[in-house]
Amino acid sequence: MAKMTFTPEENKMLNKAWFLSWSTNMASSRVSQQSKCFAMTMTPALDLFYGDDEASKQKVFERHALEFFNTHNVMLSLVAGIAIALEKKNAEDKENDIGDTISTLKASLMGPTAGIGDSLFFNVFRVIIAGISIGMASEGSILGVLFFMIFYGGGLYLFKWIAIRAGYFYGEELISKAYSTGIIPLITEAAGILGAIMVGALVASNVNLKIALQPNINNAVVDLQGILDSIMPGLLGLLVFFWCFSRVQKGWSILKVTWCLLIGGIVLAFLGIV
Amino acid sequence: MGNALLIAFSRYICQMVDNWMGWQVLTRPLVIGTITGLLCGDIKTGVIIGAELEAVYMGMSPIGGEQPSDPASATVLCVGFVVLDHADMATGLALAVTAGILINNLKPLTNALPIMVHPWFVKTAKEGNIKKFYLGMWVQNLILPLVQALVVFFVALGGSVALTNVINNLPPFIMKGLNAASGVMIALGLCLTTQAIWNGATTVVFILFGFVLTKYLSLGTLPVALIGFTITFVYFVVVKKINDAKISSAAESEGGDDFYG
């Protein structure tokens, strides 16, 4: 692989993006998790690539701000770096909008990167650093605390700094090659398959709804959730997902669906169903 | 009262700054214990309690997003009990760990607030007002940790008994309903991703495929991604071969190449 080199403008843009990518978990919500931080991380790049073209900037920003994104802190910087490289191509080639390709790649990257990042950083890196720090701090020495802050916190910063640069540089190299051979539409189509599989996996692991109601009919307790589970585990979560999707496709606003889910949850709980 | 405010402030400031800086150290027991100790005037005890609780919570990582307890709240309460109320350390630890689990039960409330303001962010993103969007993120970050700090404040004032009373006195259906709603909220965010990759029935089939791999075969995201990648790769290679064959046969017939003739 080639050594990473950047123009001064790119360097400045990547530094700003790195700074904005610190706030991975700031202002996150259960609806789209880290999408707000992701969208903010893209803004220095949009300023650089689009200049004064506010309408295009808005379109790209909205895409990143609304779609679900969730991964490990450090991995967000890596995926953001790759996304910046893609947005650069998108800005240069005005005729073909590859926005959908970018969304697809993000969707297929977040699951695996989260798995790798969580186990690497929480279960290996933090346990090692914290183990050493606890040994130093258990007698009340502040050195142990400083050690933990500098090596774990500072370590995350360093990894994020490298990740966003590597994502951008090698991402751009790969994309340029793909562009020159004209296989971008095929990549989009193929990546859509991977994206859909990952969406299905995320629905299975993250969308949970269980029926608590166990009606008593002629002294026989009917375990509704048990019956549903025997048909298909997680069936309700899947149905809720497809219901939401059909509403969004019909043009319902996010606001409307959000309130439907919140009020629906409370009403169903009041009736003792969930 | 003053003591309770002090440790609630410590909980607030650490959470707020950590959300922004993303260091993920300020809300760890070791560091928040030290900072609370510093604020309470006994940094050494803060460090020792922090180290003790860090060992307790070290293995509990929020993989998949959910944590069984609230380590940061437990730590500030423990330092408060020991330094300010002169409890002995064993009692303080026992009380704090229990409080951490109880406070964690209030999560549906703290989850519901960002869901309610999310539509505002959607609106602002559609306007393209990035400055206002970022300002909104900051306002959320300044206000939301107040909820956790408030809970810590009341627990510090009244002890764990008061907290148990509050939880018992809330109509249970509110917590259950909010919990159910935030359990399905991610579906909404995934809808927008699905819209971007939407390709009719193909998308539905592969969503079901990913769902089945995860639910029935209990595979983790990494193996699912690898299986998905294999399928995608095979699809890519096969379709590319077909396309290349089409292009070359088209070139042959157009060029009037009579090599085979």
Describe the overall structure.
The complex is a heterodimer of chains A (274) and B (261). Chain A contains 10 helices and 2 strands, in the order αααααααββααα. Chain A is mainly alpha-helical. A two-stranded antiparallel ribbon of chain A has the order 1-2. In chain A, 50% of the residues are buried. Residues 256-261 of chain B have low confidence and may be disordered. Chain B has 2 domains: 2-171, no CATH class; 199-255, no CATH class. Chain B has 261 residues and is an all-alpha fold. Chains A and B meet through helix 2, helix 3, helix 5, helix 6 and helix 7 of A and helix 1, helix 2, helix 3, helix 6 and helix 7 of B.
Keywords for this structure?
heterodimer, A: 274 residues, mainly alpha, 2 domains, two-stranded antiparallel ribbon, 10 helices, B: 261 residues
Describe the secondary structure blueprint for this structure:
The complex is a heterodimer of chains A (274) and B (261).
Chain A: H1 8-20, H2 35-50, H3 54-66, H4 73-92, H5 99-137, H6 142-180, H7 184-206, E1 216-217, E2 220-221, H8 224-231, H9 235-250, H10 254-270
Antiparallel strand pairs in A: 1-2
Helix pairs in contact in A: 1-2, 1-6, 2-3, 2-4, 4-5, 4-6, 5-6, 5-7
Chain B: H1 2-21, H2 29-40, H3 43-57, H4 71-84, H5 89-104, H6 107-127, H7 130-169, H8 172-184, H9 186-197, H10 201-215, H11 221-255
